[in-house]
## 1
Amino acid sequence: MNYKIGFLLFISVFAFAQQKIYVSANTGNDDSGDGTEQSPYETINRGIQDVVPGGTVYVKEGIYTNQNSDTPSVNFSEDSSRLDSAGRPFIINSGTNLNNPHVVTIDKSGNIESGYITIKNYQNDRPKIIFDGQGGIKLGKDSSNVGVSYVIVEGFEVVGPSSSIDYNKAITNRRYKVTLHEDPENHNDHLDADNNGNREQIIKHNLSYFSGKGIWGGYDSHHHIIIRNNTVHDTPGSGIRFNDSDHVLIENNTVYNTTWWTSSASSAIVFAETIAGVNDNGTDAKMIIRGNTVYNNWNRIPFFMTSLPENGQPPSGGYGDADYSTILDGQGLYVTRSDPNYNGTFLFENNLCVNNGKNGINFDRSNGSSALIRNNTIYFNGVHDLVQDISENIEGNPRHGGQKVAGIKANFVKNVTVVNNIVETRSDIYSALQLPTVTGTRTVNNNIFVLGSISWGAGNQTNNQVDSPQFVNPKSLSDDATTSMEEWENYLDGTDFSLLPSSPAIDAGDQNNAPKTDINSYPRPGNGSYFSSFENSLDGWSVWTNGNDLNQKNTIELSEAYAKTGSKSIISRKRTKDFHSPKYVIDDKLEIGATYSFSVWVKLQSGSNDSTAELKLRKIQEGDSESLSLMNDIPVTINSQSWTKLTTEYTHDEMDSSSFLFVKGPSLIDGVGVDYFIDDFSILPTDYPAIDFNSIADTGTTVDIGAYEYQSQLLSLLENPSQATAVYAYPNPTKDILTLINVIDEESVAVYDVLGRKLAIQQQRNTNSLKLNVSKLDAGIYYINVSNTSDETKSIRFIKK
């Protein structure tokens, strides 16, 4: 099935004068401040009061909390004179402040004309939202009493109260919820004062202290929402959730330790009850979950259901009853109960899902909808049985059991494409893939499944593997906690799910179903992006030959004589015509009307005199051909002492599929052509970041399987002597500290964002190295300029996770 990613509006840049409002918990004042950078407001809600469509509320460093924060008091007792339907005493609640309001409520919409309303962190700051009630950030209703739309939320750490809750409190809260449902009239005296006696609200939602969510849309309908670059953890309920919405993008967030204590059968990132707007029910991918890291999200409390939810199809007759004791939820990424008539496609791509309670990805009960599940890394999920072992054997709690599902599942849906994913489970007792009830097409291509059962039913499947993906540094079975729940807290510290050079995932993906970038924003080859440093092959380059010339002897081949980066390049040899050169066929790879950046580095053979080279295009159409200069007919001087870059922008137009790019080298002298080398070639859409070949591997023209496109590892000095003096950065990507190696005292270092703004970054110099503290930067791409006293500058690209 041909899925259209209908999300262009999300990435549009609105060309409007942007309003800027500033908030600071440390220096702001809601009464005397005016929202300027010099006189900020104190609370985010006050900033939202002033913002208009197209405006941004910048939130500075600090801790932002809800009203009555740090005041919840949990106090349950039993009333043995009355029993619930499970035969247990009713529960009396004498606690207080267990339904505190959200920290932030967004009650305004942007629009397509003026732009999104953005609530985000101030540059380099990482504001923290801590809640102990209904949640951290809620998208509510606007002045027209409809759910807000055209809103961006980014750059926050959102923390819930789960670390203050334990199993006994949470399971007693479930019993209290049963009590309220079965005998509410006798419990008026025990309603929270902060709920103003609104018994129906408590019956529906229970005490929100035990179910608060990190970032969510409540039960209002929203559209055109972006939630990105946030960290959400320790929320009793879901980390990020949207019901009844459409056109929602959730990207590059980290969500962990959520859903532990709710009895609402929650998951880490959720789309529930998705419904299309009027005249907007196409098959485009409008609901997108990509680039997220999601781990340690479990259910520890069995589900209790007061009434069947919208579009619900319970798995069993007793599901969610008062005496129900089995845990069936706690997914990493979860789509469920979409409107039966919703035709849209849900896109899951470039996500890392590790150690979640159930599946890494579950697409469920969305009868009219489709899913494209591509390039995700799903590892050691299905942890609920292990969690219950610890809860039972170490903490002495009753066992609740669960399902041994740990990978990807799609059930009661229309079409599913599962492509370029890595799924590794703990053992064969788990399910790695289940596609039991799919009414339309099932396509399962170019995946790696390690351990676990695989069941996709009738459908298309090709090129799937069962080999180990060979991650750089994953967890092993011996790393699983065995003594207490606290040992899971830092489960992913020090891990690395990128690929080793020997990984079978490298160059094994389906080129037609791949994102443009990977989880770290490294470009993937294909989709208009092609690049290579020729470490393993010619990667699509060939020699320009004339089939009618029987005496032609020119060749191209890999050479270790010189390399711009790595250890190899392509050499063009035995040239007897000016045009004899390496060529690269382009027409079937590029989109007509799109603009690309072409780049390649050139160097002459040792001992050669300076000469020229240029990028040219051999355009062939209906049998006619002509060679077009791409550099304004100005050849570039090249030499044998250093590499020279040839680069140009090119807008593609219609031509035959045999048209090609070539690197025209020096003119012949007495009928003999000079040998020359090319290296570090790239064709990139102009909105792509430049390739840093010092840190990126030779990827060829085929995408890899999994969330991470292969990156070259640092070589030892024995393997790569030039690295003894070259400046390089590691680890790259990084979360906090980036180390530059081979930086001397005479060299200055500056960090810039993609807009060219110089950033103030703490630096610590050591002998021939320098440490940069980038922990406060937003997730994204940045550049380091290392300049010497001769005004020579090396630019190093790095990614902040």
## 2
Amino acid sequence: MCIAVAALPAQALQCQQWQGSTLTDMREDNWITGSVSSTSEAFGEGFENNASGAGPPESGWLLAAAGDPTEETSVQTEPMLVVEFDPAQPIRQLAQNYLGDADQWPKILESSGVGSILDLQPGQQLRLPVSQVKAANQAIRLSHREIERANQAGAQLFAPQIIALAISNYDEALIKRTLGEWLEAFHLAHQSRTTAGEAYEICQKNRDGTAEARLSDKQGSVEGQRPRESTWRNIQRNALLVEEEKVRTLSGSTAQITFRDASRLRLAPNSQAVIQRLRADPLTRTENTKVSLIEGDFYALLADNSERKRFEVEIPGIEARVDSGDFWISHDADGAKLTNYDVAAVRVAARGETIVLGRNEGALVPADQEPIQKLDVLLAPVPQAPPQDETAIAGQVLLQWTAVAEATGYWLEIASDPQFNRMVTTERGFPQTQFEADSLAPGIYYWRVSALDRYDLPGARSNTRRLEIRSDTVPPYLLVEHPEPGEIIREGPVTIAGQSEPGARLTIDGSAVEIDDQGLFQRMINPTEGEHELTFRVTDRAGNEITRSQNFTYMPDRPAEISYASGMRRIAPGHFIVNSNVLSLAGVTRQHAKLRVEGENGSPLALAYADENGRFRGTVPLSKDHQNLTLRVTLPSGFATTTHFEVTVDRAPPEIFLDSPLPRLTTDAELTVSGNLSEAAVLRLNGREVAHQGRFEQRMELADGSNPIELVATDAAGNVTVRRWTVQLDREPPEITDHQVRIAADENRTALHISITVHDASGLARIAPFTINTGTGHASGYLHYDRVSRRYVGEFDNFGTMTANAKLRQVELMDWSAP
């Protein structure tokens, strides 16, 4: 994809090819060149003729900006490209086309003063920082080239702090570019290029110095012991190593020793080596180096342009003369192992026997008297994923390669530079053909892998793959185009459509929906009638998630059904009856519908609205005892339904006529209640409905004691008549609980006093006849009931001939229920 300056003809553009937001290659053959005049227009005055296609321009506006800090103002003030927004082209595609990174779409909104993608309108002008992006990328490209040039000159040895600063600025520039902070990226890349240039100059001046070595890289704990030192000390990165110094790595640690000419050794974990000789002849500019491997293993990469005279490796009982620039060697109690990956030879001598290892050949040198065994190493695996120059998301990196026949395991190396000077991860011995590099921080990495055979000899290394890892914290893009928020849809099925980030996972109400390569998605649903809330959840490959809700109402054009509440009294369907001048209208219809009641002349009488469940309630004033009314139901979509109903007003309650009054007191346990009603009504006797046809007759059982009787008549309008009685059932005779007979005599008179205490539930007669045995005969009389004391009493003078033995013989008691 080319990032073009507006108003220039396509054939006149000079651009870089992109993969995501990262330059796919910094080499000169990846440039597309155009005419001299058009290029000068695009990049400013002073652009040199580069139409030959020999490589990228070395002057012009962008390169001047990268090389001259005074041009920073030009980068900042360079006008932005203005384009009109077309809904047919997603804004992510716009960011990809013009900025080389689809994830930079929020920056387009920001520079255009647009708060949200929902605010975008067709034809709206968007401002794109195309020139700023070009300047930043050009500066980053040149910085990368200058760092590589300095490293090849030995910057890791002669100027480690300076080149580390250049690399740090370069890495920070990559991060700033990912975040869309292009001016900061440009400035950091310019600083990186300048610093790397300083490191290169230092290297050129020191290449003719005395021989020395440095610990240029380390992972974990690395220790050293110089001559005449009795203890081991921790060695820091970039520490100077002297002749006869011992170096060892602990578990999980690696160390890289870099010599003056940029040759290097990489010690594996649990390894120990001695730098026995470091000699340089300034006159002939040659070096002699000898390293003794005590235990463990290391591999060596000797500088291609080295004028080294001799490099020797010593192992107890073994001498190795090395012309190769790429070899590996191991030593333990069982013997030694060597492999050569270069066309130049490695000569191995042990116990009077000498063999020469060519390219991709190895040797086993046992510790006993067995002969040296020479064999071919395994073929190199082929990296499969990610592709070259792929941009991956931090935490989601899976490295994969092809399996190698007879491999027992694999050796993976990940570094932050293509020469593997700055090792990041070393994993050896695992059997899988993939590795989850989830711990890698954002940045650019290089990785390679080799197979291990049954002797643990590492085979040929694979080609190096370049990988950029980004920290993606930008929520994924989501635009719901249909339905619109709050839209009322009157025809089905309903189409749900919009745009999102390609490769992201989308669910709508929990169901997965596919996003195509253009970022478009669509789904058809058949919703139920009513309001709906759609929940969209988009998760991109980095795990960033965005959730959005969208409401719409599905309301097809069909008559609204009305179900009136059961509590509304009616004479017939559609004919209501009330007992006042107000009709309470209630029922269920379509949700959020508007209900309007109109009089016979069309005048509005009442207005009500249905809730989300379709329930409505309202009151309608009535001006006559009988009216024909109209109910108009209008749905939120505008579709209206009309229905008619009648209302009759009845204010007179029904009358109840009994055939005969009900008794207050009775000894009969069965009571008949009968009579007539003045009109049709619901009749209830003591709460139980009585069937009737205008006339009623109902028998009921009475209980001993007081029995309440209630008749309730309710007509169709709700008018109510209530009549109540109490009937006493008494089937028990009075009970004498106490009695007393007393004779009082003096000289003037003889008096008889009688007192009888009686209990009865229904009441007693006022008079009670009695008979008394006087002692000489019988006598009779009447007692009177005293309601206060509830006793029958009497006092009689000269009541026959009475003796002290007079006794009450008989009393006749009668209650009110007696027939």
## 3
Amino acid sequence: MAVSVPASVLDAEAPAGDCCDSGAFALGAVALRAQSNFAASSPPPETTDISAYVNVDKSGVHRLNFFVDNMQCASCIRTVEHGVKALPGVTGARVNMSTRRLVAEWRDDGFRPQEIIQTLYGLGYPAVPFDPAVAEDRTNAADRRLLSCLAVAGFAAANVMLLSVSVWAGAFSDMGAATRDLFHWISACIALPAVVYAGQPFFRSAFRVLRAGHMNMDVPISLAVILAAASSLHQTILGREHAYFDASVTLLFFLLIGRYLDQRARSHARATAAHLLGLTAAGATVIGDDGERFLVPVHQVMPGTLVHVAMGARIPVDGVVESGQSEIDTSLVTGETLPTDVATGAKVFAGTLNLSAPLQVRTAAAGQDTLLGEIVRLVEAAEQSRSRFVRVADRAARIYAPTVHVLALATFLGWWGLTSAGLEHAMMTAIAVLIITCPCALGLAVPAVQVVAAGVLLKAGVLIKNKDGLERLAQIDTIVFDKTGTLTQGRPTLENRDQINARAFQIAAAVATHSSHPLSRATVQAFEESGIARLPSATNISEVPGKGLSGIVEGLTVKLGSPSWCGVAKDTGPDDAKMQLWLCIGDGAPLHLTFSDELRADAASTIEALKQFGYGVSLLSGDRQPVVAMVAQAAGIGSWQAECLPTEKAEQIERLSAEGRKVLMVGDGLNDAPALALGHASISPASGADISQAASDFVFQGDHLIPVLTAVRVARMANGLLKQNIAFAAGYNIIAVPIAVLGLATPLVAAAAMSMSSLIVSLNAFRLRFAARK
């Protein structure tokens, strides 16, 4: 079975079902022509085999992931899912809007998955087997288009406003009609192309909803911009006194700022699953019954298959080590920075990194049935649940938009039919109503606060990654911390240096220099900081993965490593809550080196301050109970849980959410990604794993924990200013609309009032800079 999709299909702005058509409100003919051409196109030829992308689980369910282009809204999701589910044999179809990913399922071995691509292509949604690189390219292209519209609108608004100021000043001086008309024509040459280009995001949106029989805020915005531009051009052609090009482009500029922030938030959401999928091995080296090794796609590996894992490679499956011993980077599962020793019989998980030696693993699960696959599903489920929330502005538009149009039409008919005013006066009054009621202040209320808050937080070392993160952070009542790398520094240090004599310390450092193990590096670092000048020469060094080092130093046999490597019983030695290395020099008694991962210097004070704000604080960690108990006590956290798997952390967050809590998750490990995505808000340190940062709403920098407290304070302040801005925007319309309807405001006055409302909203947002300093 084979299918291919031409590159031109993915690159085209194809129509998308009920609402995501290509085209623009101002360029309707072009849109309709593109729609006609697309509908007339034949399905893509079958030339590329996609059977290798199909995954079959233990129950016989066939599953295939697709990247679907042109999805923009909930109507698109319904169209895609219903279209695929209608195919005979398909048992399920689920769309993730954030990642534009469709998961299709079927049980019949004879079903041809290319039928799904053919169906989606016919509906106007080109699709290919999911590839994170394809999703990234499409996302970047959309961001660049929107940013270019914003740049054009900003350039035009600045220049047209300068010309308008000159005309306004000339009205009170001796500017002649010819000079005024020249300025109007120059404004037209700047504004009209800018309106056509920069207005596309709104024009397209308005065209889509009108075609579907609905309305949103983009409809009155588009109508006001087009009418203002057309009327201004008409006034300029007739040599009249007033033109309103500045209202069109300034309105576009302010609203494009909010639209761009929204697009960036969607881009961030799509990046989360892509980072996770990047940890999945593309293939697995399978060992046959005759001992022959061959490479197969990882999703075709069946349970019970023996897999070879080379040193330095990611383990492609969940399973049990059948032969070999090594060290595994298990941060995916535990979040801990220290490698885990594994040998025959140990469980290993897909996505973890084999550090020291080759392994042979008996497969227990592969593909989407692995722990990594479960983490991906948890993250995507969390993202999908967020994307279902309808924005407040869109809900308000259901009443607001038609009301504005009816009001503008009634104003036009009233002035034209019931008064002696002419057609031009009636039109200008109606345009004034559309302009003065355009929700510019409402659209800027949120972005203005966010921009100021972002600047304040940036100075405090906090980066905002999610557009609505501040609003959700202000609503939290519970904070859950991870341990390693979040409450602690994530860098082990030698703790009992004063208990080790200088000669033994020198010998330990001499051997440790030959290893990259974190505790060996910590030993070498402690030696460098000790000021001891001489480092003995170590020879015949060998390292046994998972055990330790051995060598000859000053004629003596030296061992440095685990208790068993040095012949020490596990129940002797230092507190179990300490990380440790043992040192044997010749026939002497074993010595131990203990290490600790220090708390961030201000962890306890920050936790106490958060408690004083009224937040409930708890700790979830994948580490052992003695270690977690010690850290929780030092940080002043009474509620804690140890040895948590990623799924268990996510379950705890879900349980708290089900109890009505709004949880802030603070974590740095890859294993924290599902919990971070499920939290009402989330924060990660900059030193954390890439995926935890991708799943987080905020990232804080530095070695201190106080940025978390700062982020919470700023979010609460910002939430108050946000409510004030929205209240002002609503009050502005209540006062301004009657003035415009009564004909007491020309389009020029309406544009000034609209701009003034935006300025007041922005200035109110700047109060956050001063409030945050207190």
## 4
Amino acid sequence: MIKNLNIYNTLSNKKEKFIPINKDKVGMYVCGPTVYDFSHIGNARPLVVFDVLFRLLKKVYGHSNVTYVRNITDIDDKIIESSKNKKISIESLTNDISKSFNKDCMYLNCLKPSFEPKATDHIKEMINMITKLIKNKNAYENQKHVYFSVSSFKNYGKLSNKDSSELVAGSRVEISKYKKNPLDFVLWKPSDEKEPGWDSPWGRGRPGWHLECSVMSGKFLGKYFDIHGGGLDLVFPHHENEIAQSCCSNKNDKFANYWIHNGFVTFDKEKMSKSIGNIVTIKSLSEKINGQVVRLALLSSHYKQPLDWNEKLIDESKNTLNKWYNQFEQIDTSELDEDIILPLLEDLNTPEYISKLHYLYEESSKGNNLAKVKFLKACNFIGLLEEDKKSWENFKKSKVTIDENFINKKIKDRNNARNNGDYKLADSIRKELEIEGIIIEDKQEQTRWKYK
């Protein structure tokens, strides 16, 4: 019998024993992408973290007893704005980005979730939930806008462990003249003739972002389920709002029993930002780095802790996998010794698990065949060494060329930043090119570049 799974619950602010509502029907919902732009390395972390949790839950409770739902948000203000900027239709944008996202998941060797619902397929259910909230006096209409009334839910702020005044002062909340309370959040907003919209009792419009996840999780997992996950940035306001509207609509005290959040990803100790130009997309990584390298790098730190994405981390992961592939062979991975997964049962302790992999590798290198089998099975369990050795080596040998116009533009941007005294931006551009596999050198007032 596998020992207990213990997991840190943001709701209680402590590690707890995981007790499913029904051990034969374990449910997990994780917030998926808003498909307005390519996913970046910060988005990759929850993909990999919750993929490992999905694998672990299936191991503990049985493959057919776990339902994993991860949504796709394909209607949102960011999508509308992005389609305008790119001068393409919303349908083309969301289709292209959704396809790219699915490729990203395959590249990272993530298992497919049980369900991957799209927001636009559930507008009717969203309208029904809003209608119910208005009837229950938890929401109100004002000039074709519908807002959730935060004051109607006494437990608001429990997940983020803050009272209302702290939430208003310390967070970005939408400012609107239609609100009764600064914390009230939109459930429905009107759309003009150029924007996507659906008919509703409040006029033609579209749903609010927070509402979408409540509806889709409820459809596939029920009004009350086991695990809700996502990045730390979603605790407030997104997850806080999900709880409020779901509990009020369903007249429940709970929405999900366990709330799990992964930590932030920084780029060379700095927050990733488009204005700085240090966003690293999964798509760009896939053109030059094997997905297993990225996966191992993301698992090298505990999921709750911050992770700094840098060249050293990538090189260490590459070197580790180069070494591990010396022991590669195809084996039956249907069974895995339960003692090996013990670190994962303690709040997904992947650093300790990887430490065990290093130990098993060293033992197998000494000719210990049992250790070798354990090592390979343990690697496969977290999605590593599933690609054959030849594919791994071929990827290593291939050198992907990058558009020279892109490189030259980045060098020009860096030189301009240096001339303007913005050395922080200049250094960030240099680091970005390093991640792309390009080294730049300043010699005799000229900047030259070469492949690593």
